[in-house]
Design goal:
Chain A has helices at about 20-25, 25-35, 50-60, 85-95, 135-150, 165-170, 175-190, 195-200, 210-215, 220-235, 245-255, 265-275, 280-295, 300-315, 360-365, 380-385; strands at about 5, 40-45, 50, 70, 75-80, 100-110, 120-130, 155-160, 275-280, 320-325, 340-345, 355-360, 375-380. By secondary structure, chain A is of the alpha+beta class. The chains are: A alpha+beta, B alpha+beta. Chains A and B meet through helix 3, helix 7, helix 10 and helix 11 of A and helix 5, helix 6 and strand 9 of B.
Amino acid sequence: MTQTILVDSASQAPRSGDPAGHTLGGAGERALDCLLAAGFRRTEPPILHPAAIFLDMSGEEVRRRLFLTADAAGEELCLRPEYTIPVCRAYLSSDKAGKIAEYSYLGPVFRARAGQVGEQTQTGLESFGRRDAEAADAEVFSLAMEAATAAGGGSLVARLGDAGLFDAMLDSLKIPEPWRRRLRRGVARGRSLEAIFSRPSQSALAQPGVLAALESADHAGAKALVEDLLAIAGIDAVGGRSAGEIADRFLEQASLRSGQPIEAEKRTVLDAFLAISGDPDQAAVELRRLTQSAGLDLGPALDAFERRNGFIAARGVAIEATRFSAAFVRDFDYYTGFVFEAHDPHVSSAKTVLAGGRYDALARRLGANEDIPAVGAAITLDRLMNGGER
Amino acid sequence: MAAHPGNGAEGPFVLAVPSKGRLQEAAQAFFARAGLELVQGRGARDYRGAIAGLPGVEVAYVSSAEIVGQLAAGAAHFGVAGEDLVREKVADVEARLELLSPLGFGHANVVVAAPKAWIDVRTMADLDDVASAYRARRGERMRVATKYVNLTRRYFAEHGIADYRIVESLGATEGAPASGAAELIVDITTTGATLEANALKTLDDGTILRSQATLIASLTAPWGANARQAARDILARIAASEEALKSREVRARLPSPAHVVVETAAERFGAVSATGEDIDPHGFVALHCARGKVAELAGWLLTQGAERVSVAALEQTFAARNALYDALEKRIGAGEH
């Protein structure tokens, strides 16, 4: 499973074994050449992977998109639905793991879609191990845009977001943990704050007596109470969650029980934050203005944002082709910072043809001992070729 | 619709029924009650049979999972299967199948069940909260053991729950939390005793589906003239026995012609005249009435001058309108006449 071909130069790239690339009239090769010229070595990770990896990272919703099979021992395998996780796995099992390594790729990915071909061609790039995060972000983003242009996607418009800013905002507002999770997920799904805050997060009659008893309790006290309750009811504590975890959730609910979950002033600031969008430099100005007037400090996250904007501008990406949106976050917890996607503005129903971002937390989720800085992007060539309609 | 094989080239009408166990017995009994005697071929190991008196109908004895597959593929016209399997195995149920009639047996609920020890979890909203906390704390998703992969995914998505993993389980699912193979389960339950024995509880809003054995028609099977006639005959008999089961015949002789009595009985008790519009001039009435209203109707007839009122159970009541077939015809089209 871990065998990987790391190809050293463009001349050795296994192009002849890649029929999907050819059907797109050389567009894939043109895009790939851009990436190779920038020093991203071509890699071709395996097509078959344990399905559990993609289900763990992306959730059960991707299951219906996966082409599933099983090996002789019954392990559930799937055809890769994308390249980032396969490339990251190959990197981690190579002798480069933990060091700087930058890869490009071109080949098929497999996603089941009703009434459509299940195989698409992707090209893209992944950068691991670089500590100059904002420069790496800007390079990967601008290279992806260049490669898409070389492949024939003339006039893409990109949307940028920053999970680091979002997290820093929730940090500085001291939003309690359960609400941070709900906010991140809700915003990622395009819900309004109104909708997120009005959604029930616990049963209406959640044991008011227990909650009242716990209002001034600490973890140890709450845990003892839960253990006693279970003992009285004669229930063995089976099934994954400990008495301590159950106690913590009761404590969380008890602390959130009185009044509004989040104070009105904080909601107003959050609303204003999420509404910030448009030109990235202008957005930075607005972010400074907002945090100053609210007496908040986004710390290094805002500095990093400005630094990245500078790098992107310096790489010559047309500024009018990029829009920042503070509400653009992804519901994958391994995305830790910069995120971006691009589509063709001339096609009204255009799907995203290019997407990427920073995913420092993925390596650890795939078994590394620590986070490894990583940023990458993928271009779905079929969408590029078909005006984004597929 | 599937191509119509004309000129007598039409294959038999296929009715797929469970090949073993309680479901087979219950299905056999259900059809027998409707006057449809399923006759298995020579010996118990023969998987093809017929219905006595209905030539052109072939009975296929197959496993429940296979019945669902054959219906979805159009290889069988009618079949008996649990709704749970249908909803799990067929992606676009509404486009491929018509669920004609629940059969009143094989009851089972597909439910979301969590350990009883989770005293803070009573609803799907609680579960959503706990699932995301679980993932945040451990970096792993909570695992759900089930054989109902699709039902689970749809139901969890409806409730906005994303932080979970399905562990496919093909037997003894209820043991998964205790053995550490999963944190919770989605499974069928009839009495709840198995859940109870495994220290599990159903969430308040955790009932995904109340399932029972159902008579199902395939919309993609070849619906030629013979198949339509067979469907009409079978559904007429089923409707006749279902209707008969629900009603009683009430007879009485009234002192005078009974037009007004019949009309009032229809208004007040929902009774229909067994002899239709043609009312007997000598005051004899025969009414069909829902079982629950019989005593009231009889009492009222006595006040109208009847000396005796007799009530009789019905075996079958055939009606000119065949509601079950009409529902099917709406889906498969009227065909060629």
